[in-house]
Amino acid sequence: MDLEREIKELIVEALMLDDVTPESIDSSAPLFVEGLGLDSIDALELAMAIDKKFGVRIRADDEGNKAIFQNVKNLAAYVAQHRG
């Protein structure tokens, strides 16, 4: 399974998005406000789920967070780059 797909499944599971399927998430669409409409609490939960599943820690005070969490593609690229 490719990393983008795994992250889409993780988003749906970790954030309990009952009305969203991994297939319906566009990898290039924004995750926050528009797109999926996630908020800062969702970002925190997603960061913890990514740490747990992939062993990649995303710090809350990281200046790059806006870019990292912009969309699934960026998130997958960050995880791939920082995976153990």
Q: Would you mind describing this structure in some detail?
A:
This protein is mainly alpha-helical. It has one domain (about 5-80): Orthogonal Bundle (Non-ribosomal Peptide Synthetase Peptidyl Carrier Protein, Chain A). The protein is built from 4 helices and no strands. It has helices at about 5-15, 40-55, 65-70, 70-80. The longest helix is centred in the middle third of the chain and has 15 residues, at about 40-55. The two termini are about 20 Å apart. The relative contact order is 0.20.
What is the strand and helix layout of this fold?
Elements: H1 3-14, H2 40-54, H3 65-68, H4 72-82
By helix and strand content, what is the structural category? Answer: mainly alpha
Count of folded domains: 1
Strand segment tally: 0
- The CATH homologous superfamily is named ACP-like
Distance between the termini: 18 Å
Q: Write down the secondary-structure element order.
A: HHHH
Low-confidence stretches: none
Q: Note the beta-strand portion.
A: under 5%
Share of helical residues: 40-55%
Task: Examine the coordinates and then state which fold CATH places here, giving the name of the CATH topology.
Answer: Non-ribosomal Peptide Synthetase Peptidyl Carrier Protein, Chain A
Question: Shape from CA axes?
Answer: globular
Assigned CATH architecture: Orthogonal Bundle
Q: Report Rg.
A: 11 Å
Mean pLDDT metric: 94
* Major β-sheet profile: none
CATH first level: Mainly Alpha
Instruction: Tally the helices.
Output: 4
